[in-house]
TrEMBL record:
The lineage of its organism: Bacteria, Bacillati, Actinomycetota, Actinomycetes, Actinomycetales. Keywords: DNA recombination, DNA-binding, Transposable element, Transposition. InterPro entries: Transposase_mutator. Residues 50-71 are annotated as: Disordered. One of its GO terms (biological process) is DNA transposition. Transmembrane segments: none annotated. Residues 57-69 have a biased composition (Basic residues). It comes from the Bacteria. PANTHER family: TRANSPOSASE FOR INSERTION SEQUENCE ELEMENT IS1081. GO terms for molecular function: DNA binding; transposase activity. It comes from Actinomyces naeslundii (strain ATCC 12104 / DSM 43013 / CCUG 2238 / JCM 8349 / NCTC 10301 / Howell 279). The keyword DNA-binding applies. Belongs to the transposase mutator family. This is Mutator family transposase.
Amino acid sequence: MPPHQSAVSVLIQEVLSDPDLAHDDVFRRLLQAGLQDLIDAEATAEIGAGPYERSSKRSNRRNGKRPKKLATTAGEVDLAIPKLRQGSFFPSLLSPRKRVDKALYAVICSAWIEGVSTRKVDDLVRALGNESGTSRSTVSRICKDIDEAVGEFLARPLEHTWFPYLFVDATYVDVRVNHRVVSQALVVATGVSAQGRREILGMAVGDAETTDFWTSFLRSLRERGLRVTTDQDPEGVVLVTSDAHAGIRSAVKAILPGAAWQRCRVHFARNITSRLGSARSKPVNALISTIFAQTSREAVTAQYQHVIDSLHPSFPQVADMLTEAEADLTAFAAFPREHWPKIWSNNPIERLNREIKRRADVVQVFPDRNCVTRLIGAVLLEQHEEWQYGERRYLSKTSLRHLTHTLFQDQHALPDHSTITLNP
């Protein structure tokens, strides 16, 4: 709606023409009209078009409104929240500040106070209205509440259930350490519980991806109660899925001795693309993908060998890579067929990784490691709660019963120190 047509403008004209209106009522009505204009403008931006407007950018349509009362210092105001035909809409100006937003606010202010000043941080501080200075005590109070919640979450016991599947991934963030900006590894672990739900299990920030780093991280999960598979009790971690990070395989073998390691098939395909280039890798990756289109353990084994034989004449290096990675790329095949698409790659946590990177990119340079834990920990806590209360089960109860039956009845299905032989 153009400014000259807004509800605020219309109300101002009404007020000017009627001097007998009470001052308090004028302010309340102005506030109500202003808020309604902002809500309608946000809905228009969300939809991509105004009411009855024809636009190629339109992605949704309005479907009426629902009333919302808002208590203000000027009195209660009545607002109308647009409803959408697809999905839901709730204006950001009425939402309480989320934990993640508070964490981001605290980290940005900490960066400003500590002198970690990038153009983006400078712009954000001005947008937040803090260019005149934010006290350490103010930031400290915000940090205290966030740190307590994040700390309790990241240290919570893990023995409350069985996590058969574990996913770990790493990305890098820039952190100021000893007055220098250095790249730090940020590691996140997620698990699928015996109830079929995903949970965030832990995170760590370190100097590099090494065997010691991964060993320390996985050991911390065990110390909090993450169960390990044994011959007597198969209800522990049976599969760890990750990219081929330096040291991860050795760490899994040492700390989770009953678990197999599944090398992420998506990352493996990206490695092929990096080696061959985009054009040459397309038919190669298409052929490799046929391995994952099979429907039985035996068929996976047979197709894997067929792919190696087919690639060897023209792409001997790729054939050698596949030969070396066979046990790791096909570890998924020892588990229930209905689980395969959910466990053979790290794709299920790609959305989480994108959110982490989006938040980290806002800060650009973290003032210290504590700020990394504060912000990313808050992101993880919010995601964990969403998975627990707002998401469908990641794996069905029926398929998990199938997994339990397989592990108890067929001891050959149990992984042997991170190596699974698929030959019958």
